[in-house]
Specification:
By secondary structure, this protein is an alpha/beta fold. The chain has a single domain, classed as TIM Barrel (Alpha-Beta Barrel), CATH 3.20.20.10. It contains 9 helices and 8 strands. It has an 8-stranded parallel beta sheet with strand order 7-6-5-4-3-2-1-8.
């Protein structure tokens, strides 16, 4: 499937759901993708990308950003506290704020640096023990804790369990966002992004549908 086709589907779903055209932004998830595939998408004019690891992003994006002005980069994967300062230099948004220690570190470094990426709280809607994210029952308190630290929470993010109907998780995330006055919803991936758009996603994260199957690292 092409980038153009995915964009067309997103716009069609926005129209069907009665949402404004362009209300949903497409994040091209470029983790572990070969450079030539990323460059091909950049050459088509796309400028919003997502990475899962700080280290991997640091190895390829400074050069790409120099060659392709206007790139916006979002961190989608877990963030260790010792990588926060580096993340500030690389990313325009962090979608994986998920624990008090991380929030406190972000607040401290934002104070020191004088700026802060857009922040999304990751909610573990499926309450899966192997997944990061705050539990739904604890989300309100955690958002309040982040705000008490002086952080602005732009949105919430979730990754539904693979074997469950994603729409239920998207609705839960939207409900938590609404009651906390949060407008951003980072939800929906290659297999379910249209359902996410219908339920109010402001950001969908699509990787394999744009770039093709991931290439395992050599070694």
């Amino acid at each position: 499937m092409s980038l153009q086709e995915i964009t067309t589907r997103i716009r069609a779903e926005e129209k069907r759901a009665g949402r404004a055209e362009g209300a949903t932004r497409l994040i091209a998830v470029s983790k572990v993708q070969p450079l030539e595939r990323i460059e091909a998408v950049l050459e088509q004019g796309h400028r919003l990308f997502g990475e899962n690891r700080v280290q991997e992003a640091a190895g390829k994006w400074p050069d790409l950003k120099a060659r392709f002005p206007g790139v916006e980069l979002h961190l989608l994967g877990p963030l260790q506290t010792n990588k926060v300062r580096q993340a500030f230099g690389l990313f325009d948004a962090i979608h994986s704020v998920d624990r008090p220690k991380l929030a406190a570190t972000i607040a401290r470094i934002a104070q020191e640096e004088g700026h802060c990426p857009a922040l999304f709280v990751q909610v573990n809607t499926g309450e899966e023990p192997q997944k990061a994210g705050v539990l739904p029952a604890e989300a309100d308190a955690f958002i309040a804790e982040c705000r008490a630290l002086g952080l602005t929470i732009e949105g919430l993010m979730c990754i539904p369990p693979e074997e469950e109907e994603p729409s239920l998780h998207f609705m839960l995330l939207r409900k938590i966002a609404e009651r906390n006055g949060v407008t951003g919803l980072s939800m929906g991936m290659s297999g379910d992004y249209e359902r996410a758009v219908a339920l109010g996603a402001t950001h969908v994260r699509v990787g394999s549908a744009i770039f093709g199957a991931r290439v395992p690292p050599q070694g």
